[in-house]
Amino acid sequence: MEFNEHKPIYLQIADNLCDKILGGEWQPEERIPSVRELGTLLGVNPNTIMRTYDHLQSLEVIFNKRGVGYFISKEAKDTIIAAQRNQFIQEELPKILKKMALLGINPSEVLI
Amino acid sequence: MKANFSFKRYQILLTKELKERNTMILKLAGIMSLIIIGIWLTSILITGGEEVSPLFRFGMMSTLLVVSMIIAPFNLYKSYNHPKKGIDYALLPASVCEKYLSMLTIVVIITPLAMILSLVTTDIFLSLITPSVFPGFAINAKNLGMIDISSIYEILILQWGFIFGNFLFKKSKVTKSIFAAIGIYLVLGLILASTVKVVYAEEINQMASFSVQINSLDDLLNNHTLKEVPAMRLVMYIIYAVTYFIIPVGSLSGTFLKMKNQQY
Amino acid sequence: MLKIENLNFSYSKHEVLKEINLNLECGKIYGLLGQNGVGKTTLLKIMSGLLKPKSGVCNVLGYNPFKREPGFLQELFFIPEDFVGPDIEVNKYASLRGAFYPNYDGFKFSKLLTDFEVDGRSKFTKLSFGQQKKAIIAFALSTNTKLVLMDEPSNGLDIPSKSQLRRIISQASTDESCIVISTHQVRDLENLIDPIIILDTNDVLVNASVEEISSKLKFEFRDTPDKEALYCEPTLGGYLTVNRNETEVESKVNIETLFNTVLMNKKTIKQIFKK
């Protein structure tokens, strides 16, 4: 896994896991690798993975069955899509609109 | 108590040390036996089968034993105080006491026994196949009778000194140890000689033929002429104490302290 | 698990460590950074009992390391930077020494050797420097000691072995163990070491988790230089800047940049990280 220069690692790993869920590689209610397994796989500090899982748990994308491990929530896909839509509308879209205005691009030019 | 010495751990350590060093010990024993074989071959090939007496062989074997005992600590425990190679041994989970005792067990007991076994077997084998060259065994009642406790002890003192040298010096250990040993004996000899010279100044002046025959410390101590002079007696006892007590105890405890406080 | 108080050390007249205070906890993989000659190796050697501090306290798991008691040595493994193995087979070395470590796992050792592609049947003296180093790292992590100290573990390793090393160390860390890794090659171990310790001759400048660092410092990529920044360095297509983090948003901690920032702002950094 390649990491970029901007986001904290634990969030980058979270994004990567979300992509796996959206892409269907990981199915709802499926068990995901343990903190240690994923840490070993990526060569990343287990505490970082722990933060990733805590983060995804607080977003209700995954949940923890005590003594068994972490599982993907039933609604994970919807949750992720909702969160990403939200982020797109609030953070990325304004930037795009601003740039389009700057370059004088009319929305109808890019809409197919 | 268990922190300093556990017999079980000592056993594991001794086993480990022996398994790591067995080839070196065997090599050393092999070389010693080869020298005996060399003497045998020399006799057959060069001097035309002239016989080599058991007494000569016994002397040769004793010398080889002493040499191997002095070489052993350098050969087997050379890297203990090496700044890099020594770390591995220093951090091995055993106490200094266990490491010290296992080292002594190997160098003082096991290695000499291996040498004796190898030398004696070679001698017996050769004298059985060519009785004309090696008549009789080197190990016989007469020769063994010559061994006394004090000469064994003197060899051990020498060896312990060299063990200490191995832990004391970091570079060119053998040379430095030999020079240190020679130095110590020279100093002791000088003290003795100058005392004799002062005490017997008159006699030496009067009789040019004054001589004292001293081959060993025992001779010195049993020399009644010398013993009668109080100053001589004092110096003799000091030298006796230094050689038989202070040097060995100092070597053994010095080695222990060096092992305990060695920094890397 | 490890506590150092007012520690001083010098080589004859050359002072190396001065009034050092440091606390290490279980369950972490510490990265020990510092310029050449500030005494990283010396500190690791003091922690493992190879050197005796001139004054001050070093307490590891309740032991005084320099006494080298078996109970302490059983829970410690120190891997020197330039490890040179003895003239025996790797497997023999491991089985003979493994007996001294109560939690030694021989299967783990063979597995790690396989992962590292080292042949356990060859003698150390027949292996390259990197191979020997991998063998001793594999053995160290198989002893399952509570404290593992590694001095420049990635030195001498080829590229595939470096990522293998990150995986193996991550796998080896447990809640009960503490791993301390000193390194110059920060990139080799990025994302693995956390917390980060930055050592100076007479001070520990930083001892903080990556989370804490990113909550206190903001690492940003900008188009224009920032003169007010704690640190600003030109990179490909812009500038990398470090400022105090006044927001709730975390950025990615770049350890090399962090290191440079800390060295240029020793006092400010101390203040920012004051607890």
Please bin the fraction of helical residues of chain B: over 70%
Low-confidence stretches of chain B: none
Instruction: Give the largest interface.
Output: B-C, 25 and 27 residues
CA-based shape of chain B:
flat
Give the secondary structure arrangement, pairings included.
The complex is a heterotrimer of chains A (112), B (264) and C (275).
Chain A: H1 9-22, H2 35-42, H3 46-58, E1 62-65, E2 69-72, H4 76-103, H5 107-110
Antiparallel strand pairs in A: 1-2
Helix pairs in contact in A: 1-3, 2-3
Chain B: H1 7-45, H2 54-76, H3 87-90, H4 96-129, H5 141-145, H6 149-168, H7 173-199, H8 201-206, H9 217-221, H10 224-227, H11 230-261
Helix pairs in contact in B: 1-2, 1-4, 2-4, 2-6, 6-7, 6-11, 7-11
Chain C: E1 2-11, E2 14-24, E3 28-34, H1 40-47, E4 55-60, H2 70-73, E5 76-79, H3 90-98, H4 106-116, H5 129-142, E6 147-151, H6 159-172, E7 178-182, H7 186-189, E8 196-200, E9 203-208, H8 210-216, E10 217-222, E11 231-235, E12 238-244, H9 255-264, H10 266-272
Parallel strand pairs in C: 3-7, 3-8, 5-6, 6-7
Antiparallel strand pairs in C: 1-2, 1-4, 8-9, 10-12, 11-12
Structure explained in plain terms:
By secondary structure, chain A is mostly helical. Chain A is built from 5 helices and 2 strands; from the N terminus they run αααββαα. In chain A, a hairpin with a 3-residue loop joins strand 1 (62-65) and strand 2 (69-72). Chain A is elongated and about 55 Å long. Chain A starts with 8 loop residues before the first helix and ends with a helix. Chain B has 264 residues and is mainly alpha-helical. Chain B has 2 domains: 1-146, no CATH class; 148-264, no CATH class. In chain B, 75% of the residues lie in helices and 0% in strands. Chain B is flat, with a radius of gyration of 22 Å. Chain B starts with 6 loop residues before the first helix and ends with a helix. Chain C has 275 residues and is of the alpha/beta class. In chain C, 32% of the residues lie in helices and 28% in strands. In chain C, the strands form 3 sheets. A 6-stranded mixed sheet of chain C has the order 5-6-7-3-8-9, with helices on both faces. In chain C, helix 4 runs antiparallel to helix 5 (129-142). The longest helix of chain C has 14 residues, at 129-142. The model of chain C has no long low-confidence stretch (mean pLDDT 93). Chain B binds chain C through residues 3, 6, 9, 12-13, 15-16, 19-20, 84-85, 87-88, 90-96, 98, 260-261, 263-264, and chain C through 45, 48-52, 68-71, 73-74, 76-78, 80, 82, 84-86, 88, 92, 96-97, 99-101.
